[in-house]
Each structure stands twice: as C-alpha cells, then as structure tokens.
Amino acid sequence: MTAEAKGLFELPASDTPPAEQVRATAPLAVRMRPGTLDEVVGQAHLLRPGAPLRRLVEGGAAASVLLYGPPGTGKTTIARLLAAVDTRHFVALSALSSGVKELREVINDARRRRDHHDRQTVLFIDEVHRFSKTQQDALLGAVEDRLVLLVAATTENPSFSVVSPLLSRLLVLQLQSLTEDEVRELLRRAVTDRRGLDSSVSLSAEAEDALVRLAAGDARSALTALEASADGVADTGGSVIDVPAVERAVTEATVRYDRQGDQHYDVISAFIKSIRGSDPDAALHYLARMLVAGEDPRFIARRLVVHASEDVGLADPTALQAAVAAAQTVQLIGMPEARLALAQATVHLATAPKSNTVIVGIDEAMADVRAGAVGAVPAHLRYGRYAGAEKLGNAVGYRYPHATPDGVLEQQYPPDALVGKDYYRPTQHGGERTLHERLAKLRRAVRGG
Known about the structure:
Elements: E1 8-11, H1 18-21, H2 28-31, H3 44-47, H4 52-59, E2 65-68, H5 75-83, E3 89-94, H6 100-117, E4 121-126, H7 133-137, H8 140-144, E5 148-154, H9 158-161, H10 164-167, E6 171-174, H11 180-192, E7 202-203, H12 205-215, H13 219-235, E8 240-241, H14 243-249, H15 262-276, H16 280-292, H17 297-312, H18 318-332, H19 338-351, H20 357-370, H21 432-447
Parallel strand pairs: 2-5, 2-6, 3-4, 4-5, 7-8
Antiparallel strand pairs: 1-3
C-alpha cells in the first residue's frame, strides 16, 4: 500500500519556497498559500513580535502545538511553515483515513530519521478530533520524547475533543476567523499575484463586497469563490468579475456549522440565550443558521419546549403551548414548511415576559430531597381505600377542598420538616404578577397564616 493510499503524504525538503513548488493547475487557494510568515494574513495575535507562533517559526523552538480554529484560518499553512524550520521533514496524516498502524509507521520512520540523519519530523494531523482515544494515546510517547514535532489541527473545542494527556503536552494556539479587511487583502492579492490570477481579470468593488460577505472569515472559501467567478468570466470572454458573475458561480453561502462539533453547541447556546435575552432578531438569525446548515428541526423544537418552561414559565402560560405546537408541526409536516412554526415559536418565546421560577422551584425541591429532606407523608394524605387503612390512620381527617365555598381550606400538605417552605416564588412579570397576588392568598388560607 502506498503512503498516498493510506492518507499520508510528505513534503520533500527543498530550498524552494513551498509556494513555488505548487503546480499551476492547483486550486487558487493552494497556489496562494503563504510561503513565509510575512505573507500570512490574519492571526496577528499569534504572529506579532514575541508572540508564540512567531517564536516557533522564526526561533525554531521544538514545541508541539494544537491549532484550534474555524476552517480557512491558516492551520495547514502554519504547519508547513513550522516544517520549513531547519529543513525538518514534514509528514501529513489525515485523521479520516489513518489509524494506529499508520501512526506507528510514521513514528518508527521518525525515529530512524532522527537516529541516522539527525533530522526532526514534523507530523501534521488534520482534524485530530476525529482520532479515537486509542489513536490519540498512541501519540503520547512520541510527543513526550519530541520524537516528532506534532502540529495538530482541529475545528473543535480541544477541551471536548482531545484527550487530556495529549492536550497537556501541546501548546494550544487559537486561530480567529479573518476580518473583512483581511479577506479583502487576500482577494486583491490573488487577483494580481502571478501565482494567482495574474491580473487576467479585475474585480469590481460590489463583487468584492459580495465575496467578502460569502466568505464569512474563511480564506479558503473566499479564494475558491473568486476562482469559480474568474473561470465563469473567462468562459464568456469577459475580463471583469461583477456581482452577476459571483452569483452565477456561487449559489449559496456555506454555513460554518458542524452538527457534531462545538459550532453545534455554540449556535444553539446563542439561540437560547438570545430568546432568554428577549432579542427575537438575533434568535431568528441563529435559527436560520441552524436550518440552512441542515440541523435536525426536531432538536430545535425540543430546545424550544424546554426553554418555554425554563425561561418563560408561567409569566406566559401560552409559551409552552406554542413550543409544543411547533414540535408537533415538525413531526406532522416536516421541512421546509415547519420552519414557519419554529420561527413563530421562537418569536413568541423571545417576546414573552420571562421567569425562571419554574426551574428554580423544581431544582430547589429536588436538591432538598437529595439532601434527605423527605419526611413521612402526613397520615391524612395517605391512600386509604383498602382494608385496614383506617386502623393505620391513613386518610383519616382528610378535608375535601371542594366542600368549601372557595375550594380552599386550611390543611397540612407537606411533610412536617417542610411546612412553610416556599419553592415556587412568582415574579412580577407578565402572568406571574397575578399569580404572585393569588399565591399569597392561597398560602395564607392553606397554612392558616
């Protein structure tokens, strides 16, 4: 089996900058990959003088790193720049197509290269979060002994996706999405640079704005869309990339969202917090991001149902009804029509008065139960419809509330240890304002206060 077939490839040592080794037929994003630190756009917090990444690349420090950030922020580029230090040997391994066997082959080869040629190996593992615990554990010894200089890349939060022993041996560097100005710089460079479009086309200001917006901070996405637009213009014999050319080449922006990754948790978290914060516009934005990215609408509906009780509660008793109705609509109708019910429920909950008294009340009650505050059920409340119950005192003395004009009477309901304990404390928000007044009267009547 060839190394390429196993998901493995090596960058041969050369004095020629990596950018010069790329074939002219390679994708624009590959041709424009920076060959030096000075060509890198973005990540100023890691590249300024004295910053960790600049010290690693320029100083030749031998520290393994984990590059954590969204797609298109330069993780592969940085790995190659680290490999270029002191003519290190570069090996890239894909977590999608490699296992423990391939890892051991790389490590054994790195040992031979170190022992016989005094040359260090840079091992780049893309999407390291897709490695199993066993695969990640297989790296520990090689990283600990610096047999390999590991450069791992992930779009996932490493606290959740990388095992602790490996994470503790890595310098974690978080990359940020490019700003709009940084994406513009990349686009303009690609249009004029001889490695790129070499001024064969020009880019209108409006088209540039469109490409920047579609890229959403992703350099690779920006350059891919630019190349597709340029190809379309060339096919028609034109020389100017305008907005229609971009629209023909790119039908829809790619939403950066992974249903199994931390973007999934980040976006749903922002969605719920926007509803809780009474911002329907932000909530609709995050709802749209999830729907366009293909999130399971049943998952969204379930979160709305939970939120209706957790953050709205009895401040608006119809909120739960709206959320449940949306969940039923998702089941009965499905997408794309169900998006309307989800949006309606989202706006309903976002604009509703808020109260967290339901979740506070049940959580306090459960905490007391777990702490042992249970006590015996009062005898008059116990089940009494069986032979011998009366002799035990069960149900004896129970007073039927409906026998009174108001339907409320003085009677002990909680165990002795919990008499007078308030779990539900309504706010003055929305429907709970009325409940606040009514509950005070009910407690006086029931407790005899």
